[in-house]
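Mods, move this if it's the wrong board.
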Amino acid sequence: MDVPGVGTARGAFDLFMPGAFLLANAVGIAYACPHTTKYAEEVTSFAQKSHVLATLAVICAAYLLGVLMRMALVDPVDRCSVRWIRWFGKPADDLTWELYAGERFPYIEHLGEICERRLSDAARRFWERTWKPRLQGGGSKHNKEFFRFCRTLLYGIGSGAVAEIYAYECLCRYIASTFYALFASWCLALLAVLATPFSVTHHPVAVFPALTVLEVLIVAYTGIMWFMLLRFHRVRILEAQIVFVACLARKDEIEPLLI
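Not the wrong board. Structure tokens:
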């Protein structure tokens, strides 16, 4: 096992941390919620009596949650990010809005516009010969098969950009998994706040601190998810752009296989 980190080969960090974050939030919210405090205290008591079993249970549960979130698709988060950018952000002035915020991954037509307006003529000609013919439905439909084919070819020829490509792919999946964990935690906290008035009939002042913590948590997670949605689409575009540039750098070997 390599040193834990996002994008490292065979690293468990990418899987474990989102699951551990969600598990910690679920336990904390259950402990703060008045109608589940009793069960949370029983779990805490068990953990204090049996540290080894509790540690194993936490590791297994966190890793399982992380695996489940990793299996969730990245595209829904990307589409949410696009909608968020449409409402609260905008692309650069020299790029077409419909392509930036409308085309699906791997953004083949958007990459062509970047080549035409920002990169060299060599990049534009390479895109026209290899990537442009792979457009499906004028760019309205994605062609992930072609993108995966290019990425696998780069892995096969041992391109120097392989580590960077793998790191960006893992980073996108890690951000998406973290977003799912944040959203699930946000939903749990909101449900706890909404359910508390119906489950507490005595001593309402006693639950005020717990409600305050949960409300602060909801506001904080809302702000974090807001920021993530504004930035995620740009990171996903970089993932596709790095693969394209790596193909361009090894065009003598790659191009005959793409035409």
